[in-house]
Prior knowledge:
The protein is 19% helix and 32% strand. The protein has 14 helices and 32 strands. It has an 8-stranded parallel beta sheet, sandwiched between helices. Strands 26, 27, 28, 29, 30, 31 and 32 form a 7-stranded antiparallel beta sheet that branches. Strands 12, 13, 14, 15, 16 and 17 form a 6-stranded antiparallel beta sheet that branches. Calcium ion is lined by residues 410-411, 413, 415-416, 418-419, 507-508.
Amino acid sequence: MNKSVCAASLVINLLALFFITPHFIFAQENTPGNNFVSLKPGSSVQEIVESAAHVVPSGRQLAWQRLETIAFVHFGLNTFYNQEWGRGNEDPGRFNPTLLNTDQWARVISESGFKMLIMTCKHHDGFCLWPSKFTTHTIASSPWMNGKGDLVKQVSESCRKYHLKFGIYLSPWDRHEPCYGNSPEYNTFFLNQLKALLSNYGTVDEVWFDGACGEGTNGKKQVYDWDSYYTLVRKLQPGAVISIMGPDVRWVGTESGYGRETEWSVVPYSSANQDSIAGNSQQAALSTGFIPPGDMEQEDLGSRNIISKASNLIWYPSEVDVSIRPGWFWHASENTRVKPPAKLLDIYFSSVGRNSTLLLNIPPDSTGLINESDINSLNSWNKARESIFMKNLAEGASIKPGNNALNITILTDKNDLTSWKPGKQALYSLEMTLESVTDFNVLLLQESISTGQRIEHFTLDAWVDSVWRPVTGGTTVGYKRLLRFPTVHSGKVRLSIDQSRLEPELSELGLYQMLPQVHVNPSSASFRESIDVVLSCDEKDVSIFYTTDGSEPGPKSSPYIHPLEFKGTTDLCCVAIRKDGTSSFPVRTSYTQGTYDIKLKNAPDEKYSGGGTLALVDGAIGTNDFADGHWIGFNGTDLDATLDLGSVRNLHEFSINFNECTKSWIFRPQQLEFLVSEDGEKFSSVYKKSLGIPEKDSEQIIRVNFDFSCKARYVKVRAINFGKLPGWHPGSGEPAWLFSDEITAR
Ligand code: FUL
Ligand code: CA
């Protein structure tokens, strides 16, 4: 996906969220729990904290939270136009998936552990994947199934077949519909579409209203009648949560896949009078200046400090939406950029493991199938989660007496509905002797949220070398908290709840071991004559296997014994396998024989020479520390490098890194260009972009990576220095530094 579009959607999402209406009235129904509380004016902090501890999810919110992982499916005309945001003038004639099979979608999604599928029935381009009666901009005008198909129907049926719940995404922003912007007329149009989707496709469990919103074809801004939309959803699908621009589920505030470490599901709603909101909610929202907790930059949305200033509190849990690819829609060029299983696992720990649900987007391709590359990544991700969470090492532990007669099985029965209360005291610690002395590096905790979210701080210690050593800890737990830490070898642990709003209620506790991890040193490099490569693993009882033919190694592949010596260009793939068969993720590296020659037009600064120009192609990547010896720095001048690959090769991927640290005067280049040539004389440009302007306190590595197929022997990289430091900078007017490392052309 085009970065500026992605950024734009984020900004629009944020902006849109500022105008969300506080719809207490919608939030409140659907018991069992009271998910809203109005605080008495003048309440003490203690009283507010206790009230917060009693706010609980509504029935639909609880059911939704327990799903944990949900798949998002972006599919539509954009898939055929190779774009992210259609303009609304696309030709339905282009919609023609020749192999479409929604059973394949549902099977892949359900086999990957997801519990619901949310379908983009209509995205911003206005194109409907069902034959809507209210517009001709639908699949009925497409060649697919001679215009007789109903994709929403097929998807909903496949979901039922594979035991997936079904959710709908219907974009309020419609760039095709001519009446968009004539507010009452479009609201009726939208309600008609919504009604059709909620009436004809069985049970709907989530309705996802996007925050992205802009002008329609006539340039007018639409005023959405959210109240009517919500009323209709409640009437026709009372079990469905309404998300993002809705009262039940909150957008976490980022599309990166990473939620907050401190994530409260109980957050303030503005100090508004409930009657007036019920009567006239839109105006009330605007006049009270209510700002919803949608902005990720606000790290803390519900701690004591925040709720103590609130007038109303609401159960409003967070959802982390992220795509398995750079874009939300499928693009052929992104088949090689599917997030690898290790990244998906990291996202899982940082979303589900941080008291959120994960909404992972898996966009089918233009043939109408989920692509092999996505399936492979999902399979390994799912296998990894299964093997990590298969054996809870806390199972069978004996509890130190005095802990309110806890039977550990309540916490290890994989059932979040059975739970344990330590008694009246809010602080307590739970000491457990494990069945055996063992290795672990993951802690799982679950609170019984049907009685509220209460834990504010916890720590885990382990008995190592006859003393208690701190292992990990955190703030919130909520529905689920997962923490990773360096491997501990111990047979006794102690969980302490150091701070809690009221007596906490734990439903699950687990200790697990991550997959083994292989380390490869050096990781990808170029060399002149030969190179030695060392493989290792942090665990003792594992064997390492490798291949050099591109295939994924298994226990029958070559075992690693000594450092490997490669004399020619080699692609290496290795895994570590435990005795019980648990395998690490495969690690792939490549070693290119160093016919590389690299010439720089401008000499780098002596202090930041990277130890020679080869530093730019040696496979050792510069870290966040610009002075780590890998980075090559230019003071006021440009990077102008020419690589000679030795012979003409087929190239398909290019990348380069820049270090930016504005406080140390290191700025990104203003412009970057890649050129290629077969003869070293005639170069043609394959990439040219300006890299934008940094934020004031930017400290980051900027990686530019793009795919382009060509034949070339020479690659020229030109990065134009940012120039004079800008007015706001203490060094204003002085020349900026440019720091670069690792150019790849593969
Ligand atoms: C955003 C949209 O603009 C994107 O295209 C995508 O649908 C994402 C889930 O939400 O706001
Ligand atoms: Ca339990």
